[in-house]
């Protein structure tokens, strides 16, 4: 599905515009919401909970951004969160450091399996990670003996609740990782190679650039970040339940695409992913708030409808933007 | 190009057989045969005709019908994540109409129409608006089930009507309705793709959309049609599922069916990149995955372990297929 | 390279064999490249040139034979591997990453760094320098894909040159280049040779080979049939070695006698056609029984003209008449229904459906006509396919996937695809790009015959020689405007070149305005 | 009324003579468990002012399936009846969404917060409500003691005793089958406390009845279709099964359909015991397809608001309040079917 050469110039502009559009809509929505709901909306606890909740999704979306930039996809992240969250939880009695290491390590290990099969054996990412979605969840359930895994109330939990400049460590962790990732994308050979692979893997190889390792690495990274997300989740909520992560991979994919990363690879933005994710998340919050107003009672079933419709509106606006430009 | 005069000896037949393409063609069938063999030996009453037709095949048929639609969409280089939700939506709409006293002759076609409409919606987003198939169908994946829940208020409502009972328990030509429909639908699809230009057009669009456009094929229409057929089949399966449990279940009907269908298409040796279509192997893929699941259940394997096994089998299957694909 | 270069050839490939799914692509192929040498590698389409190169650089694994570099056996596993040993390759068809910037394309895999991070400023400067050696001055921060194919090809060359190779392999680098660019390239190649770099050069244009190469390796059906000095062979001897038959049988390419117009009215008439952004105001007439040429510099809008006539691109304004009528031609489907046919210049991206069989590829445009009461007539389909495979001498099985064919054979299948629709007007965009001499001669002969049989042909070609020898009449496009018409009596490469460059009509040639176009 | 219909249990159709090796086949329904004496009262939880009307919030963990819908409905109906304003969120079966829901509810500062916890482990967020000065009432499930303290972080929890429900199901099954046979069990959502506890209660009680052999246990996720598929597969592999225990009614309905599809008669060839007490289940007891059903009453509204009002009035509220569940069988199903949810 490679775009016609003549389209290449427009694609870049289009996605850049889309990113700005996403940020603009995000700002607009937040402004409108705070006007409508007043104090309660940005009062400390809600902002904190909003960002805390966003952390885990943002971590998998970050990994997903790199995977998608290579033209792949990682459907297994939701299951990896469960598996790594469980592993981290079981390790948590041995201290926060051990829990984090075990969680991230578990995620990375699963990511490495995906990466090997995709980069080395050249299997299709969609199917490989679909299979991993199954076995990693099974393994997580097995490991936890299908019981919710509790995180010891140790350093990890207080760390999760500690605040720096009024926001939790989780928030700052998220910001830090996104900044690092943005730098890595723009300023490391690895980042550029990842984009090149997504653009045309065959060409990249024929230019004499090894492609296996970078391709492997994005799945490793995605797994490791999902693992981290599992531990973060566990420490924030004190436990990891067996339903954790079901369907989250699609939330991440949606955020990445809304954020202006091309699903076929080659063009991407880290900041866009964050904006896309925060935008999707703010919708949840607003639906909850709207329910509280008592005016229109948004039946919870409508929430999914609204979310789907919102996704539709965003992508339609984006293509509209793209078309408008093409004509001019 | 073997010379007819020099018939190769058996040994050289083995040597000359194109093993890679043999495995590719029959890989899923071989695994299926092994599973059947295992069950004949280790599972009581497996060879019972009633079991084969009314348990194994009947359970597999709805997924197989959905997978046929999915294979069409995948042949165009797309993917349809919404089929599971469409199954739910069509079933719920039909159930509600039936409960309202609408005659079955009207209510059942409406269910299929719901699926067709959903397919039209997906197809339009993909072909007219150029939205990535995954994202385009994610809209209905999210909103479709929500709508289904809205329609029934999330309740499971028993539909005690002869027509529903017939859909679930009826027998035509000694076969359960779902198995009978699967056979009819398969024959129809095979006939249409073999003998009319539709099959060639489909593969041309999936293989090289721009080239297809330049030979006068209306690529947008072909793509849309694939989604419409997939949607219509999902709508029909919604009716079968309604009949199967004799009740509407918005939350669980068709749950994860899209992933089962995609996995089946993949283990059948079809690449998700488009340009290939094989109804026979798709059905074999479904049967294989379904029988695997049933075998694990019948032998008391807990669900989480079964999930691990399924994941591993899928990986193993596509690994073998790939080995054969580009052995060079 | 220092003076202490070891004796013996730089590269030796001996007895190389390679099969794809049982089909021999190479069978005892041999190639020796000396030092300070530019070696031509020639052969018909499908002879195995690209395969031999890919085996050298490890893209394909060889089934047998050996490869020695500097006398030592080597076994590269990938292009990267080969590059480490100084073997740099520009593969056939542009293989770059279009969405990244020009600069990144040049420095991918070896980014200049500062404190571990990519140093964009140095990279941009380096890219500009690399392109300057090819006299190219473009914005290196723009995505490569936004430039035309020739520029992309030059970028690939710039990258390869800047890699400081010992052995540079160029697989048909000139097929999408114009003459001036080819000259620039040759200049660079000469200076590289003088600095000690050896090169392998693949091209189907004989004059290029004689201009730049000293020695030649000739492949035929996967076998090396000659390794000689070019000077010792004249063009006819070379071609006859390539083909394995007497050179006299190869069409000479001499201008056929003038073909009479078969009707007074043009079968296709385009007036003031415009299509943003490249086509601004083009008018052209095509008569049944004649070959109408379109000439112009790269980017002059020739392809756009053909595309918008065929409904592949939207026509913003202008009028198109077919046999005097003004049918709707907004989609290729409508164009085909009006008996137009269009052979695209980009075979890979817009022509072939790669994994589909030759049979289905060949009959793709014919599908509606093959269908009776909704059913495809497979028997007739088979007949037609067998017929065209024989008529055009296509080397392929009907049920073989078309990707497995060599470029020339793919091109013939695509041509057959359109001939099978029995069009009234055939629009040909660079029909012989990347096609070997014999296939090219065959295709041009075929075009000649089609015209003689009453078809109207519109031919776009960047090879002036081809335009001059094949066309009855040539319209020159410049910046999307048809600026002149040159008719048979004054058709020569020189006169065409002059018009194309200046945009001035040659005195007394017709101005392409509709009213006085009739002569 | 403790729903003690125990002695009349023998009326179940086709009850075989009690096997000697089954201690519980003839025992009476063990009935509801009683809260341990001296359940502490809520003292340190945030106080609730006495007002004419309240603005309350309810975090439901998943608003699907008849049971949860009935629960939500009951909360909404009761609030409406009392003239309170109620805001409901639906976590859609997702623990972390529920935590997010609760936090956003807290931000809106309701007078009181009702929570139907997804899992026991959402306790930390309950503590946040306390910090915000909002009294919390848990219904139908509780939270882990390690994370939130009853009477301090939240006022009280109104729950059913799931272990007891499982136990009562085992008794009912033993009685109906006469203490012999092969049993398959269908479990609810993996890891949920109701599934874990019912399984524990059922299996522990079954130990006293070696004649009832548990041949297979499968997770059917509270889904009707899934339960149907699984039962079909299990019946095919174990054609001599004589009883099915489904932890929830949806699964029971799926199992009954599967039994029918296998050409057997539910209630005769294979006896089905289930839990929840839905209208559909009661009807099938009346129809003879199901033999017994242990109620798990979803109608928490009246009780929940009554407790809230007591608490506002300053009455002593115990930190754990047990719901009273009934046992339905052929003797009383017809009587209750019309009121069932
Ligand atoms: N990947 C492949 N799979 C199957 N067959 C192939 C493959 N690549 C090349 N071939 C076959 O090998 C033979 C040699 O092809 P090759 O591309 O080397 O020819 P070439 O001399 O470069 O031709 P051209 O002048 O058209 O570029 C052809 O018959 C071609 O069909
Ligand atoms: N916006 C653009 N910017 C730069 N290059 C473009 C643009 N649009 C098209 N091109 C490329 O420029 C090239 C020349 O355009 P066009 O095909 O109209 O002219 P042409 O005279 O037919 O040249 P060619 O010999 O390449 O066919 C094409 O390869 C096309 O892909
Ligand atoms: Mg070649
Ligand atoms: Mg052109």
From TrEMBL, chain A:
The chain crosses the membrane at residues 21-37, 57-84, 96-119, 125-144, 164-185, 216-234, 246-264, 301-321. The keyword Membrane applies. The keyword ATP-binding does not apply. It is found in: Cell membrane. This is ABC transporter permease. The lineage of its organism: Bacteria, Bacillati, Actinomycetota, Actinomycetes, Micromonosporales. PANTHER family: ABC TRANSPORTER PERMEASE PROTEIN YPHD-RELATED-RELATED, RIBOSE IMPORT PERMEASE PROTEIN RBSC. It comes from Paractinoplanes bogorensis. Keywords: Cell membrane, Membrane, Transmembrane, Transmembrane helix. It is a multi-pass membrane protein.
From TrEMBL, chain B:
It is a multi-pass membrane protein. Its main location: membrane. Keywords: Cell membrane, Membrane, Transmembrane, Transmembrane helix. The keyword Cell membrane applies. The chain crosses the membrane at residues 23-42, 63-89, 101-121, 133-154, 166-192, 226-247. It is found in: Cell membrane. It comes from the Bacteria. PANTHER family: ABC TRANSPORTER PERMEASE PROTEIN YPHD-RELATED-RELATED (PTHR32196), GALACTOFURANOSE TRANSPORTER PERMEASE PROTEIN YTFT (PTHR32196:SF19). This is ABC transporter permease.
Automatic annotation (TrEMBL), chain C:
Keywords: ATP-binding, Nucleotide-binding, Repeat, Transport. Residues 11-246, 262-504 form the ABC transporter domain. Pfam families: ABC_tran. GO terms for molecular function: ATP binding. This is Sugar ABC transporter ATP-binding protein. It comes from Paractinoplanes bogorensis.
């Amino acid at each position: 599905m490679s775009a016609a050469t003549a389209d290449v110039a427009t694609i870049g502009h289009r996605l850049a515009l889309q990113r700005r559009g996403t940020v603009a809509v995000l700002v607009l929505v937040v402004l409108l919401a705070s006007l409508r709901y007043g104090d309660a909306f940005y009062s400390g606890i809600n902002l904190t909970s909003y960002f805390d909740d966003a952390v885990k999704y943002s971590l998998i979306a970050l990994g997903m951004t790199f995977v998608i930039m290579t033209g792949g996809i990682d459907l297994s992240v939701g299951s990896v969160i469960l598996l790594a969250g469980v592993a981290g939880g079981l390790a948590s009695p041995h201290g926060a450091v051990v829990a984090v290491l075990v969680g991230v390590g578990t995620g990375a290990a699963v990511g490495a399996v995906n990466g090997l099969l995709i980069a080395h054996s050249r299997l299709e990412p969609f199917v490989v990670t679909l299979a991993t979605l199954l076995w990693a969840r099974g393994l997580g359930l097995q490991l936890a003996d299908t019981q919710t895994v509790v995180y010891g109330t140790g350093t990890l939990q207080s760390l999760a609740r500690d605040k720096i400049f009024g926001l939790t460590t989780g928030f700052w962790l998220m910001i830090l990782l996104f900044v690092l990732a943005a730098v890595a994308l723009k300023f490391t050979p690895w980042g550029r190679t990842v984009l090149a692979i997504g653009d045309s893997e065959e060409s990249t190889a024929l230019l004499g650039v090894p492609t296996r390792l970078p391709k492997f690495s994005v799945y490793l990274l995605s797994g490791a970040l999902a693992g981290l997300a599992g531990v973060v989740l566990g420490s924030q909520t004190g436990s990891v339940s067996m339903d954790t992560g079901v369907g989250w991979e699609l939330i991440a994919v949606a955020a990445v695409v809304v954020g202006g990363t091309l699903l076929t690879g080659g063009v991407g933005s880290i900041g866009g992913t964050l904006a896309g994710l925060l935008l999707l998340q703010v919708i949840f919050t607003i639906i909850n708030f709207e329910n509280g107003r008592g005016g229109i009672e948004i039946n919870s079933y409508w929430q999914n409808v609204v979310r789907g419709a919102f996704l539709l509106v965003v992508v339609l606006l984006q293509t509209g933007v793209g078309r408008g430009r093409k004509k001019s | 190009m073997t010379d007819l005069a020099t018939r190769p000896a058996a040994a050289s037949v083995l040597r000359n057989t194109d093993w890679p393409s043999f495995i590719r063609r029959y890989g899923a069938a071989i695994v299926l045969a092994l599973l059947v063999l295992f069950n004949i030996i280790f599972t009581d009453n497996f060879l019972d005709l009633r079991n084969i037709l009314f348990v194994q095949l009947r359970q597999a048929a709805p997924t197989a019908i959905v997978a046929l639609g999915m294979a069409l969409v995948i042949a165009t280089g797309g993917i349809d994540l919404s089929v599971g939700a469409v199954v739910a939506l069509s079933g719920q709409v039909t159930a509600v109409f039936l409960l309202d006293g609408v005659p079955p002759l009207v209510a059942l076609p409406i269910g299929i129409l719901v699926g067709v409409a959903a397919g039209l919606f997906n197809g339009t987003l993909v072909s007219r608006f150029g939205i990535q198939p995954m994202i385009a169908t994610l809209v209905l994946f999210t909103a479709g089930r929500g709508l289904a829940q809205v329609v029934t208020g999330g309740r499971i409502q028993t539909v005690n009507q002869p027509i529903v009972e017939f859909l679930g328990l009826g027998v035509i030509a000694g076969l359960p309705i779902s198995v009978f429909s699967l056979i009819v639908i398969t024959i129809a699809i095979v006939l249409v793709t073999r003998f009319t230009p539709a099959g060639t057009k489909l593969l041309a669009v999936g293989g090289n959309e721009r080239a297809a456009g330049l030979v006068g094929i209306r690529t947008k229409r072909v793509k849309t049609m694939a989604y419409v057929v997939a949607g219509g089949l999902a709508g029909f399966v919604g009716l079968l599922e309604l009949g199967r449990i004799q009740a509407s279940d918005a939350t669980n009907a068709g749950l994860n069916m899209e992933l089962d269908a995609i996995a089946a298409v993949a283990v059948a040796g079809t690449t998700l990149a488009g340009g290939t279509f094989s109804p026979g192997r798709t059905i074999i893929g479904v049967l294989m995955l379904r029988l695997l699941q049933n075998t694990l259940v019948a032998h008391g394997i807990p669900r989480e372990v079964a999930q691990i096994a399924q994941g591993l089998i899928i990986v193993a299957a596509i690994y073998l297929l790939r080995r054969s694909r580009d052995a060079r | 390279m220092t003076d202490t270069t070891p004796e013996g050839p730089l590269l030796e490939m001996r007895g190389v064999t390679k099969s794809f799914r049982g089909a021999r692509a190479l069978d005892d192929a041999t190639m020796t490249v000396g030092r300070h040498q530019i070696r031509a590698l020639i052969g018909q389409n499908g002879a195995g040139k690209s395969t031999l190169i890919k085996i050298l650089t490890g893209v394909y694994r060889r089934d047998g034979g050996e490869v020695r570099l500097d006398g030592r056996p080597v076994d590269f596993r990938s292009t990267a591997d080969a590059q480490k040993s100084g073997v740099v390759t520009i593969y056939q068809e542009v293989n770059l990453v279009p969405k990244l910037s020009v600069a990144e394309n040049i420095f991918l895999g070896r980014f200049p760094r500062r404190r571990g991070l990519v140093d964009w400023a140095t990279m941009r400067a380096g890219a500009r320098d690399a392109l300057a050696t090819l006299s190219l001055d473009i914005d290196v921060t723009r995505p490569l894909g936004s430039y035309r194919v020739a520029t992309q090809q030059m970028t690939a060359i710039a990258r390869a040159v800047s890699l400081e190779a010992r052995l540079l392999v160029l697989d048909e680098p000139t097929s999408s280049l114009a003459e001036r660019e080819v000259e620039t390239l040759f200049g660079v190649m000469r200076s590289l040779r003088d600095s000690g770099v050896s090169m392998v050069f693949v091209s189907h244009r004989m004059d290029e080979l004689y201009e730049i190469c000293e020695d030649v390796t000739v492949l035929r059906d996967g076998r090396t049939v000659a390794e000689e000095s070019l000077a010792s062979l004249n063009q006819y001897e070379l071609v006859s070695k390539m083909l394995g038959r007497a050179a006299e049988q190869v069409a000479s390419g001499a201008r056929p006698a003038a073909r009479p117009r078969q009707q007074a009215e043009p079968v296709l008439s385009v007036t003031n056609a415009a299509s943003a952004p490249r086509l601004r105001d083009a008018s052209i007439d095509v008569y049944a029984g004649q070959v109408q040429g379109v000439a112009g510099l790269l980017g002059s809008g020739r392809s756009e003209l053909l595309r918008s006539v065929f409904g592949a691109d939207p026509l913003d304004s202008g009028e198109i008449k077919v046999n005097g009528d003004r049918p709707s031609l907004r989609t290729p489907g409508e164009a085909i229904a009006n008996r137009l046919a269009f052979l695209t210049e980009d075979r890979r991206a817009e022509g072939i459906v790669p994994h589909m069989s030759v049979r289905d590829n060949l009959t793709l445009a014919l599908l509606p006509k093959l269908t009776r009461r909704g059913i495809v007539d497979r028997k007739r389909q088979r007949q037609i396919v067998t017929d065209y495979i024989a008529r055009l001498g296509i080397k392929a099985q009907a049920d073989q996937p078309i990707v497995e064919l060599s470029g020339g054979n793919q091109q013939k299948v695509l041509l057959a695809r359109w001939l099978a629709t029995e069009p009234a007007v055939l629009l040909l965009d660079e029909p012989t790009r990347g096609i070997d001499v014999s296939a090219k001669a065959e295709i041009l002969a075929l075009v000649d015959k089609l015209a003689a049989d009453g078809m109207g042909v519109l031919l776009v070609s960047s090879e002036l020689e081809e335009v001059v020898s094949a066309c009855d009449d040539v319209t020159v496009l410049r910046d999307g405007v048809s600026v002149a018409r040159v008719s048979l009596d004054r058709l020569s490469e020189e006169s065409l070149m002059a018009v194309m460059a200046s945009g001035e009509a040659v005195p007394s040639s017709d101005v392409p305005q509709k009213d006085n176009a009739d002569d | 009324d403790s729903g003690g219909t125990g002695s009349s249990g023998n009326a179940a159709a086709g009850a075989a003579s009690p096997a000697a090796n089954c201690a519980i086949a003839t025992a009476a329904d063990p009935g509801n468990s009683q809260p341990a004496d001296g359940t502490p009262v809520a003292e340190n939880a945030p106080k609730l002012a006495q007002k004419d009307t309240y603005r309350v919030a309810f975090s439901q963990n998943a608003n699907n399936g008849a049971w949860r819908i009935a629960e939500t409905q009951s909360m909404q109906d009761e609030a409406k009846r009392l003239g309170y304003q109620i805001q409901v969120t639906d976590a859609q079966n997702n623990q972390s969404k529920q935590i997010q829901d609760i936090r956003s509810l807290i931000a809106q500062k309701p007078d009181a917060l009702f929570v139907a916890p997804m899992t026991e482990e959402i306790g930390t967020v309950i503590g946040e409500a306390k910090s915000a000065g909002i009294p919390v009432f848990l219904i139908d499930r509780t939270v882990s003691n390690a994370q939130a303290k009853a009477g301090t972080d939240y006022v009280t929890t109104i729950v059913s005793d799931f272990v007891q429900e499982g136990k009562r199901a085992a008794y009912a099954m033993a009685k109906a089958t006469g203490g012999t046979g092969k049993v398959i069990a269908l479990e609810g959502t993996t890891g949920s406390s109701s599934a874990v506890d019912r399984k524990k209660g059922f299996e522990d009680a079954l130990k006293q009845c070696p004649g009832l052999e548990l041949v297979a246990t499968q997770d059917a996720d509270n889904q009707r279709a899934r339960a149907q598929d699984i039962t079909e597969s299990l019946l095919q592999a174990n054609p001599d099964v004589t009883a099915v225990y489904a932890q929830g009614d949806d699964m029971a309905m799926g199992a009954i359909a599967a039994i029918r599809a296998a050409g057997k008669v539910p209630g005769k060839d294979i006896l089905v015991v289930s839990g929840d007490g839905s209208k559909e289940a009661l009807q099938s007891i009346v129809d003879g397809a199901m033999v017994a059903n242990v109620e798990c009453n979803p109608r928490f509204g009246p009780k929940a608001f009554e407790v809230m009002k007591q608490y506002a009035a300053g009455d002593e509220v115990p930190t754990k309040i047990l719901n009273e569940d009934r046992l339905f069988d052929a003797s009383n199903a017809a009587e209750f079917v019309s009121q069932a949810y």
